[in-house]
Amino acid sequence: QMGHAFYKQPFHFDSSEKKLSFSTHFVCALVPKPGVDGGHGFAFVVSSSIDFTQADPTQYLGLFNISTNGSPSAQILAIELDTVQSAEFDDIDKDHV
């Protein structure tokens, strides 16, 4: 499964050298069904776009696909809260940030 939630008002970044600061908070629980490993987690994202129609679920977290993963043109900052180890991405273990 894959889903997205967006902040109501977009952040506006400019190209100046000024620092930008913001804060937010959220509460969640990643609790898989008994006997099931769970999913690939989720990510807190800052992106230049809210169009993720070409993204794949699972290890791409609904943000990327095999051709956009790692691409500098993606212009995404993602903090991943993962619950599954993916060897293809050199994950350190199954529960990591």
UniProtKB/TrEMBL annotation:
Signal peptide: none annotated. The keyword Metal-binding does not apply. Coiled coil: none annotated. Gene3D superfamilies: 2.60.120.200. SUPFAM superfamilies: Concanavalin A-like lectins/glucanases. Keywords: Kinase, Lectin, Receptor, Transferase. Residues 2-97 form the Legume lectin domain. The keyword Kinase applies. InterPro entries: ConA-like_dom_sf, Legume_lectin_dom, Leguminous_Lectin. GO terms for molecular function: carbohydrate binding; kinase activity. Belongs to the leguminous lectin family. This is Putative L-type lectin-domain containing receptor kinase I.11. It comes from Noccaea caerulescens (Alpine penny-cress). The lineage of its organism: Eukaryota, Viridiplantae, Streptophyta, Embryophyta, Tracheophyta.
